[in-house]
Amino acid sequence: MIKYFGFFTVALFTLIGCKPKVKPIEYGHQACDYCRMSIVDERYAAQLQTSKGKTYSFDALECLINYKHENEETAYQQELVTDYNTPKKLIPAEGAYIVRSKKLPSPMGAYLTAVPTKSEAEKLVETNGGQIFTYPQVAEGLENLPEL
C-alpha cells in the first residue's frame, strides 16, 4: 500500500511540476503575436502556450482565434483569455463565456469579451445587450458568428 502511495505521490508532483506557468503580459511594451499591435488593454489580452512551453500573447481574443486557425498544426497546452471583470487576470479559455456586444468593443473590433462564468456573462448582456457564446463556439471561427 505504501509502495503505491509513494508512486502516486511522485506521479502527482511530476504532473503538477510539468504544468506550464502563465507568463505575464507586458502591457504597453509587448506586441501581439498575430497583428503586431501593442498589447495595451488589460481587459482583453489572450495567450496560447504550446506543449513545448512557447508562449504567444495577443491583444484580443480575435487575434488568438485567427492565429490558431493559421497555425492548426501546432498543439496548444494552454489557451487563456483575460477575465474582463478582473483586468490582467488570465483564465482558461475552454470554460470561459464570451459576450459579443456592440457596447463592449474589443481592441480588434470583433466585440468579444470573456468572463469566467455564465452568470457574469448574463450580467454583461443585461447591461450592454448582445449574445453569449462558449469559447468553443467562438473558437470555431469568427466568420461563424452571427452579425451584430
From TrEMBL:
It comes from the Bacteria. It holds the Pfam family NosL. Signal peptide: none annotated. InterPro entries: N2O_reductase_NosL. PROSITE patterns: PROKAR_LIPOPROTEIN. Transmembrane segments: none annotated. This is NosL.
